[in-house]
Write a structure and sequence with these properties.
Layout lengths: L3 E13 L14 E11 L4 E17 L7
Antiparallel strand pairs: 1-3, 2-3
């Protein structure tokens, strides 16, 4: 973002049911929450779980420039 790389460290991985929305709220600005679907069920054609990855910002650094040579 704006020529700056943000580096995060994963602190927790949590598996939850799809209806556990309360786990999706993040209160701190130096954290990021990534959510993906897991446990695909061929019979119902739906995902039975979610994986929540909670990470904390550890570093901000100037992004390397790309040369177009």
């Amino acid at each position: 973002m704006g020529g700056v790389d943000f580096v995060y460290a994963v602190e927790t991985l949590i598996q939850v049911k799809p209806n556990e929305a309360v786990k999706l709220f993040q209160r701190k600005k130096d954290r990021i929450l990534l959510v993906t679907c897991t446990d695909y069920n061929l019979l119902t054609e739906k995902y039975d779980g979610r994986l929540i990855v909670d990470a904390v910002l550890t570093q901000r650094k100037i992004a390397p420039t790309q040369n177009s040579n």
